[in-house]
C-alpha cells in the first residue's frame, strides 16, 4: 500500500497562499498490508543454518577437523529463509575468531545478500572476536527459496596453540519471531597444525689444525692463543605447510675430554644469527678461565710462540693415545663431556625467507690438549649433536620426525699429518709424471705423421750453364730455383740470372 501526501509548500508553513494548489511536495511511504490483515501485527519466522564446506575429516571430538597448512581456505556456508511474514530491519551477524582473516564472499551468493555484508569489526565485549553484519532487507519478505552465501576465511596464520575455532551466526529483526531458537547457529571446528620441521648442522671448516706452541691456562691471555676457531651453524627449516610459533633446539656441546682437559672452549654465548629467537645457556660454562676475548680482526688460527720453560709438557703423558690410533670424541659414546644449551625460535612460517632460523656457535679448539694427548693419533674426529622439538608438541603434528636430529663432524689434524704424512704420496707423483711424458710423445708422433715438422718452400735446385763471351767455354753452377717467379738469385750478384 502506498500513501501520497500533497500540501502547499507556502501555506503549510504559515505563509499566505496565492490561490490554487500551488507547488506541491510529496512523500511516499510504503506499508506491507498483507501481514496485518488478521491482527494488525507482522510476525515473522527467520531460520538460520550453517556448515563448513570442504572439510572432510572429523576430529576425535566429532567436530569438523581443519588442518592448518592444508585447509588454509576455510569456507562457511550460511543459509537463511523467512517462513512467515515480513521481517523488518533484518540483519545477519557472523561472529568468528580474530585468528582468521575474512576474505570475502564466494561467487554464487544469492542476489539479496551478494553486496550486503559490511567490513569486519571487533566485538565490543570480546577483543578476540570479529563481527560481520549483512543487511537482509527492510522488510525482508518471505521467499520460496533459501538465500545462501559462502563466506571465505584465510586460516594460514592460525597459531599452533589454537585448538578450536568458534562461529556464531544470528539473524535479527525488530518485529516478533515465531521461533527465536532457530534464528541462530553455533559451530565449532577443531584445529590441527601439520608441518615438518628439519634441523641441519654444519661447521665452517671440516678440518682444524693444531700444533706449534703448547700453552697452559696460566699463560694464555688472548683468545687467539687458545687454538684455532671453530664456527658452527644450526639451521631450523619449517618445511610447512603450517606455521610454527615456537620450537626449541637443544645442542650437546663437547667442552672437555674425559680426563678433564679442555676440548672446545666457548667464550661467548651462541646467538640466533637469523630469525626471531634467543639462546639460554649456563654462564658458568662461558670463558671459565677469564681469557680476554677478541673484539675485531680476530685470527682463526692460533698464535704461535716458543714454549715457555716454566710450563713444560711431558710427552710421556699417560693420557697420550696410542700411535696411529683413530679417535672419535663424542659425548654419546663417553669419550667427551658435554653441557646442554637450548635456543627458542619463534614465528617460523612456511613462506620463503620466513621459514628458517640460524643459530651461530663460536668456540676455540684447545690446542694444548691435542698436542699433549693426541699428537701421535692417526685421526681425531669431534662430533656435536643437536635436536629440535616443538615447544607445544601436543598440538602440532609432524609429517616427518626423522629429520629432527643431526650430527656435525670435523677432523682435528696434527703436525705429523699435515706436514709429513699429509702430502701427496710419491707413487702418485711418479704416475702423473709418466702419464705426462707419454702424452707428450704421443702428441709429437701425431704431428710428425701429418708433416708438421717439414719445411715447405717454393724453391728447388737447378743446374745453370754460363759461357764466357771471349773463350766460349761454359761453366755449370747449381742454383736455387724459384718455381713461382722462374728465377734464382746468384750469390754475389745484385740481379738474378734468367733461365
CATH topology of the largest domain: Immunoglobulin-like
Summed up, the helix count is 3
Query: CATH class of the largest domain, please?
Result: Mainly Beta
CATH architecture descriptor text of the largest domain:
Sandwich
Average pLDDT, all residues: 81
Number of strands: 31
Largest sheet: 7 strands, mixed
Low-confidence stretches: 1-9, 11-22, 304-316, 493-499
Please name the fourth-level CATH homologous superfamily of the largest domain.
ntegrin, alpha v. Chain A, domain 4
Structural class: mainly beta
Using the alpha-carbon principal axes, give the shape: flat
The amount of helix comes to under 10%
Strand composition percent? 35-45%
Describe the 3D structure.
This protein has 499 residues and is mostly beta strands. It has 4 domains: 2-31, no CATH class; 43-195, Immunoglobulin-like; 197-421, Immunoglobulin-like (Sandwich); 459-498, no CATH class. The chain is 8% helix and 43% strand. It is built from 3 helices and 31 strands. The strands form 8 sheets. Strands 5, 7, 9, 10, 12, 14 and 26 form a 7-stranded mixed beta sheet that branches. Strands 16, 18, 21, 22, 23, 25 and 27 form a 7-stranded mixed beta sheet that branches. Strands 15, 17, 19, 20 and 24 form a 5-stranded antiparallel beta sheet that branches. Mean pLDDT is 81; it is low at 1-9, 11-22, 304-316 and 493-499.
Amino acid at each position: 500500500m502506498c500513501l501520497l501526501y500533497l500540501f502547499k509548500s507556502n501555506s503549510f508553513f504559515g505563509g499566505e497562499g496565492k490561490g490554487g494548489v500551488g507547488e506541491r511536495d510529496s512523500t511516499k511511504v510504503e506499508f506491507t498490508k498483507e501481514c496485518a490483515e488478521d491482527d494488525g501485527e507482522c510476525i515473522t519466522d527467520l531460520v538460520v543454518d550453517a556448515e563448513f564446506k570442504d572439510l572432510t575429516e572429523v576430529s576425535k571430538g566429532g567436530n569438523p577437523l581443519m588442518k592448518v597448512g592444508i585447509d588454509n581456505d576455510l569456507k562457511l556456508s550460511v543459509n537463511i529463509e523467512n517462513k512467515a511474514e515480513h521481517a523488518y530491519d533484518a540483519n545477519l551477524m557472523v561472529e568468528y575468531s580474530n585468528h582468521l582473516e575474512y576474505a570475502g564472499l564466494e561467487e554464487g551468493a544469492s542476489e539479496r545478500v551478494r553486496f550486503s555484508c559490511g567490513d569486519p569489526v571487533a566485538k565490543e565485549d570480546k577483543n578476540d572476536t570479529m563481527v560481520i553484519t549483512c543487511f537482509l532487507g527492510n522488510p525482508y519478505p518471505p521467499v520460496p527459496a533459501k538465500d545462501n552465501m559462502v563466506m571465505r576465511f584465510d586460516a594460514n596464520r592460525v597459531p599452533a596453540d589454537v585448538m578450536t575455532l568458534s562461529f556464531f551466526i544470528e539473524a535479527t529483526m525488530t518485529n516478533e519471531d515465531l521461533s527465536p531458537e532457530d534464528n541462530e547457529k553455533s559451530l565449532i571446528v577443531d584445529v590441527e597444525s601439520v608441518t615438518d620441521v628439519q634441523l641441519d648442522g654444519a661447521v665452517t671448516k671440516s678440518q682444524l689444525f693444531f700444533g706449534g706452541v703448547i700453552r697452559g691456562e696460566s699463560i694464555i691471555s688472548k683468545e687467539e692463543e687458545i687454538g684455532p676457531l671453530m664456527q658452527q651453524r644450526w639451521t631450523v627449516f619449517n618445511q610447512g605447510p603450517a606455521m610454527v610459533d615456537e620450537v626449541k633446539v637443544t645442542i650437546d656441546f663437547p667442552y672437555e675430554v674425559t680426563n678433564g682437559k679442555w676440548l672446545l672452549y666457548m667464550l661467548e654465548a651462541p646467538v640466533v644469527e637469523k630469525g626471531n629467537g634467543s639462546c639460554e645457556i649456563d654462564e658458568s660454562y662461558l670463558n671459565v678461565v677469564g681469557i680476554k676475548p677478541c673484539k675485531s680482526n680476530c685470527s682463526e688460527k692460533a698464535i704461535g710462540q716458543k714454549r715457555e720453560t716454566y710450563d713444560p709438557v711431558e710427552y710421556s703423558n699417560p693420557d697420550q693415545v696410542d700411535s696411529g690410533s683413530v679417535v672419535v670424541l663424542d659425548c654419546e659414546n663417553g669419550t667427551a663431556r658435554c653441557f646442554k644449551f637450548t635456543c627458542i625460535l619463534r614465528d617460523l612460517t612456511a613462506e620463503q625467507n620466513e621459514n628458517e632460523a640460524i643459530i651461530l656457535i663460536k668456540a676455540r679448539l684447545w690446542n694444548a690438549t691435542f698436542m699433549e694427548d693426541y699428537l701421535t693419533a692417526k685421526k681425531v674426529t669431534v662430533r656435536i649433536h643437536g635436536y629440535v622439538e616443538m615447544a607445544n608438541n601436543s598440538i602440532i603434528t609432524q609429517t616427518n620426525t626423522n629429520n629432527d636430529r643431526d650430527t656435525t663432524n670435523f677432523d682435528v689434524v696434527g703436525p705429523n699429518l699435515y706436514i709429513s704424512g699429509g702430502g701427496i704420496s710419491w707413487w702418485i707423483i711418479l704416475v702423473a709424471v709418466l702419464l705426462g711424458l707419454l702424452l707428450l710423445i704421443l702428441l709429437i708422433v701425431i704431428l710428425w705423421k701429418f708433416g708438421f715438422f717439414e719445411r715447405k718452400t717454393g724453391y728447388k735446385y737447378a743446374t745453370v750453364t754460363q759461357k764466357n763471351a771471349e773463350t766460349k767455354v761454359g761453366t755449370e753452377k747449381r742454383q736455387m730455383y724459384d718455381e713461382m717467379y722462374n728465377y734464382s738469385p746468384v750469390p754475389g750478384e745484385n740481379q738474378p740470372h734468367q733461365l
